[in-house]
Amino acid sequence: MRRGGWFKEAIVVRIGDLTVDDLEYLIEQKVLEMLGDPDAGLELREEFRQRLKSRLDATSRKVSHAEVMKRFG
Predict the structure, then answer these.
(1) How far apart are CA 11 and CA 39, in angstroms?
(2) Is the dihedral of CA 30, 31, 33, 37 positive or negative?
(3) Which entry of 32, 57, 69, 71 is 20 to 30 Å from 38 by CA?
(4) CA–CA separation, 70 vs 56, rounded Å?
(5) Element holding 3 (H helix, E strand)
(6) Which of 9-13, 29-33, 63-67 has the lowest average pLDDT?
(7) How many CA atoms lie within 13 A of 56 on its CB side?
(8) How confident is the model over 35-45, as pLDDT tens digits?
(9) What are the contacts of 54-57 at 24+ separation with CB within 8 A?
(10) Which long-range contacts (CB under 8 A, 24 or more apart) does 24-32 make?
C-alpha cells in the first residue's frame, strides 16, 4: 500500500481473526490518523498534576482488578 510517498507492507487479516481489543485499537488508530489527536500539544496545569499525583499516592483508595472481579464479577 502506498501512502504519502512511503510504502507500507500490506498485511491481510480477516476481521474474524481479530480480538475485540485488536479491532478497537485499529479503529482508534484510524480515527486519530484521520482527525488527529485533539490533545496533542496541550500541557497539564500544575494544579491538575498535583491532584493527580496525590490520587496516585493514596493507596487506601486503590482496588486491584482481582478484588473488583471478586466483588462485582
Answers:
(1) 30
(2) negative
(3) 57
(4) 23
(5) strand 2-3
(6) 9-13
(7) 6
(8) 988 888 899 99
(9) none
(10) none
